[in-house]
Amino acid sequence: MTSQSTSKPIVEGTSLWLDAWKRLKKNRAAYLSGIVFVFLTCLCFIGPFVMKAMGFAYDAQDIAYGAHSPTLNHWFGTDFYGRDIFTRVLVGARVSLKIGLIAAIVSAIVGTIFGSIAGYAGGKIDNLMMRFVDILYALPYMFLVIIFVTITENKGETVLFIALGLVGWLTTARIVRGQVLSLKEREFVQAAHSIGVPAYLIIFRHLIPNTLGPIIVYFTLTIPTMILQEAFLSFLGLGIQPPKPSLGTLINDGANHMIVFWWELVFPSLFMAVMLFSLNFLGDGLRDALDPQMKKES
Amino acid sequence: MSSTLLQIKELKVHFPMPKTSLFAPSSSAVKAVDGVTLDVKKGETLGLVGESGCGKSTLGRAILQLIRSTSGEVVFDGVDLTRQWSHRFGIWRPKDRLRRLRQRMQIIFQDPYSALNPRMTIESIVSEPLKTFNILSGQALRQRVQELMEKVGLDPSYIRRYPHEFSGGQRQRIGIARAIALNPDFIIADEPISALDVSIQAQILNLLKKLQKEMGMTLVFIAHDLAAVRHISDRVAVMYLGKIVELGDTQKIIYDPLHPYTKALISSIPVPDPLLEKSRKRTILEGEIPSPIDPPSGCAFHTRCPIMTEACKSNVPKLRTISDQYDHVVSCDLV
Question: What is the pLDDT of residue B158?
Fold first, then answer.
């Protein structure tokens, strides 16, 4: 931004993103949720190492100690095998978050590309592509994932990413296509045509940046859905396998012993609820901040 | 007279209507442009006027190949643009030649609010044509953008700002800067001033006039009233329902219009003198513009024409040359 032909310094503009960020900061619930979410995420990714160093590995058993209610040593108590539940919740939440994030990212990317191509091409191609989406939509979602997980017989995290991401992109594709359909009639897209900008650049430079608002909102709201679905799959025994915990398996175990060892159910459930709440509030706040209707749109 | 830059021959743009039912016999079409023949000379300004919905914007876009035409030719500097397309996998793609020709023809849009990508800085908007054709890069590119900003009367230090930080008139200037970035020979201005305040309109008109003189561009100026067009155009074409009804030298059209539709348009320009305004006789058109899906038989204007005769309902008038000196042609059998 130096060495100008003119004497005046260049004025930095405020992008719509910056505007949205300012609005988000004003929204206390969303801002706070954002902080809580970031805090929990850091906790999940750093916490287990600290705990391990302190001698509380997530799979370290102490059968003699057994299930014990919360103490100063074990904040969330221990389970049947004497494993520290706090550590297990952190590790489980990390696994859930990873799956939720990656599945949401995969579905956002695939959905955006698919939807923008369909919307931009229009006509027969659009028809063909969106009917394909409709067909996938018509198939029972969970059923599809379960079949996929069963067929691959590999019950690791990767399969879960793929399985959840594979069906999660459908809604994103629809949202993006709808946006692109209306955007491509805008005059700035015609202007891009008239200066000979190739189609792929029109999509990536002009169309997708203008659909990013709804995509981001949908993305933040997809993460909790994905986490819930992962929990559901693990609950059914199709997801993460023990001894590795995930929030789903932890809650499942807890539910089995809840009459005797209440802490095994309550703490993982609370942790998950706080995480999902903060994500949902954040998503809502982002929608308010990015929604063009909220502001007198340019 | 100077040579011709653009020849339009029997150009038609029809938009097919969706069938109303599965068993409807054949789908109808909106005949937005229905057989326009027009020459644009090098260096001139041609005004294109007509009511809303008469197809003037569609004609402008069809000339630039932003809309594919149904039939007819658009010959730009000897190349028929309508043939510069290839069809593959159900998609029409422009051929390289058309892409290269796009450097020489540009458009300025009506609505400055939707003509600029809200997510891009002014710098990236104005430099996009230069980047697309790899003409400049780096520091030279920025300098050129600032030069262009100065040329259209904007502060060059604003290049990092975003469109929503500018007023309507300023945005229109940005649109103009983008259009002239490649030094085009030919610009279509599609109602560039109708979305602006009256005080800004004159500024933009003068800017266009100045740029045209400096750069020797050919300009097609589209507007829905004659008031703006008379100040900038050398010749004026009047459109009605997808067809040209009268074309000629601006002075000729303003002071000696022949077609009853042109007469009505002229009389709709207010005179800035209350006494004169009260006393003058005005032709006021009755009714609405007919639907371009099902245009009237014979002369399309006969449903609203004050001098209509029985013959007008069946005879389709042809463009007749009235005077060679003023390039005056009219499509009315009664004048």
Answer: 86
A-B contacts at Cβ under 8 angstroms:
111
Domain boundaries, chain A: 17-53+87-297
Q: B16 — phi, psi (to 5°)?
A: -65, 140
Among chain A residues, CA nearest to B130: A195
CATH fold of the domain at A17-53+87-297: MetI-like fold (1.10.3720)
CB A249 within 8 A of CB A239: yes
Nearest CA in chain B to A207: B117
Quick: pLDDT tens for B26-59: 667 888 888 888 888 888 999 999 888 888 889 9
Smallest CA–CA distance from A13 into chain B, residue: B161
Contact residues on chain B for A16, CB-CB shorter than 8 A: 118-119, 162, 164
pTM: 0.79
With CB atoms and an 8 Å threshold, state whether B161 touches A13: yes
Task: Check residue B61 and give left, alpha or beta (phi > 0: left; psi -120 to 50: alpha).
Answer: alpha
pLDDT above 70: percentage of residues in chain B: 96
Q: How many CB atoms lie within 10 A of CB A181?
A: 15
User: For chain B, what's the residue count?
Assistant: 335
| pLDDT at site A3 | 44
What are the 10-residue block averages of pLDDT along chain A, 298 residues in total? Answer: 54 76 80 86 79 68 66 68 76 83 87 91 87 86 77 72 80 91 88 86 87 84 82 76 76 75 78 85 80 48
Question: Cis before residue A243, ω within 30 degrees of 0?
Answer: yes
Residues 6+ apart with CB under 8 A from A139: none
Contact A140, A201 (CB under 8 A): no
CB atoms A195 and B102 under 8 Å: yes
Mutate to test the interface with B, among A187, A210, A216, A295 (most CBs of B within 10 A): A187
If interface means Cβ-Cβ distance under 8 Å, which residues of chain A face chain B? 1, 3-6, 8-17, 121, 123-125, 186-188, 190-199, 201, 205-206, 209-210, 297-298
- Integer Rg of chain A from CA: 23
Interface contact B119-A194, CB threshold 8 A: no
Residue that has been written with the tokens 């060495």 in this structure: A3
Sign for the pseudo-dihedral over CA of A252, A255, A260, A264: positive
Alpha carbon separation from A283 to A37, A220, B65 (Å, rounded): 11, 5, 42
Q: Which residues of A touch B128 (CB under 8 A)?
A: 192, 195, 197
